[in-house]
DNA sequence: TATTGTTATACTCTATAACTATA
DNA sequence: TATAGTTATAGAGTATAACAATA
């Protein structure tokens, strides 16, 4: 057994594998969020789209797709679903009529606020193993990791 | 506009959404790892299975499935693929012959070591936005989050 | 009767290709 | 010619259900 060697290098077992850790944490979030935002199609992803729309960060579908890390074809169906529910509307961009600006409706903003409230509990649940100060540190570091990754994707 | 209120509560925009952050980080890892461990079926997941086998932590397929957060039916096919390549073998558990212990072969251990080496670079790339000490902190906190999530899943 | 693992099937998610419209 | 968005189709990943072997 290699473990009997008690070498100086790290064990590299599953618990210390970054991919495993990220996958487990992400999965824990999605599973908890999925049955929390049941009033939104697409689960957490629908919430993220709505978040972008509410904050006026959905100036084109291509921009949203890039930011959410999904294909533009997937986004079409997702917006369709939210538009059918009257949560967002597509508006042609005056500057470039090929593009569509996605705006949140009043009801979309109301639903978003309700979801946000409930998702705060989900987020707290995911990081419940950490002390409040640690959780804040974790979120700050993770944010830098994520934002850097998004910057890299800009083709 | 709500942003014009300049309120005291956090903005709650996409950049601070835990689900978005985890998703983006996880996706960045998977995409980088996928074209790195091309000699393993299932990508990063195949590596994780091999990791469990190499460390003797694959005492039953049900245990692996729980630890990897995947369905036991998915695991069957994954093990099939690795077994065809001669990287692991299934052995009946003497204590409970319903169970199968998954063991890494010598070649499996060799392939695992090569993959581990390359994945270290992938991991470094994912956390490249952080200083070394910050990256260590991030990993330690993430590990506690992930391990807690796994404990919760134990039905 | 309950559990482990397998197989077949169906479902969901995502990506590819072809198309329209604008630039 | 290139880009934004849509649609139809195909593919990958995942889950559900029925089954055999064992406890």
Structural features:
homodimer; 155 residues; mainly alpha; two-stranded antiparallel ribbon; 6 helices; disordered N terminus; DNA-binding
Structural account:
The structure is a homodimer of 155-residue chains. Chain A has 155 residues and is mainly alpha-helical. Helices cover 59% and strands 6% of the residues of chain A. The first copy, chain A, is built from six helices and two strands. In chain A, strands 1-2 form a two-stranded antiparallel ribbon. In chain A, strand 1 and strand 2 form a beta hairpin. The longest helix of chain A has 22 residues, at 132-153. The radius of gyration of chain A is 19 Å and the shape is globular. Chain A starts with 17 loop residues before the first helix and ends with a helix. Mean pLDDT of chain A is 92; it is low at 1-10. The interface between A and B is large, with 61 and 60 residues. Chain A binds a DNA duplex (23 and 23 nucleotides) through helix 4.
Can you summarize this structure?
The first copy, chain A, is built from six helices and two strands; from the N terminus they run H-H-H-H-E-E-H-H. Chain A has helices at residues 18-34, 44-54, 61-68, 72-84, 106-126, 132-153, and strands spanning 88-92, 100-104. In chain A, strand 1 (88-92) and strand 2 (100-104) form a beta hairpin.
């Amino acid at each position: 057994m290699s473990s009997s060697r008690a070498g100086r290098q790290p064990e590299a077992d599953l618990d210390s594998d970054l991919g495993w850790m990220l996958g487990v944490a992400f999965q824990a979030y999605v599973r908890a969020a999925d049955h929390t935002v049941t009033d939104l199609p697409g689960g957490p992803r629908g919430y993220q789209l709505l978040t972008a729309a509410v904050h006026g960060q959905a100036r084109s579908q291509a921009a949203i797709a890039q930011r959410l890390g999904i294909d533009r074809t997937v986004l079409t169906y997702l917006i369709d679903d939210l538009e059918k529910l009257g949560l967002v509307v597509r508006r042609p961009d005056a500057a470039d009529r090929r593009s569509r600006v996605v705006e949140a409706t009043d009801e979309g903003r109301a639903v978003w606020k309700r979801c946000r409230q409930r998702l705060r509990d989900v987020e707290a649940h995911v990081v419940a193993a950490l002390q409040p100060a640690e959780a804040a540190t974790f979120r700050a570091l993770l944010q830098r990791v994520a934002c850097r990754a998004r910057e890299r994707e800009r083709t």
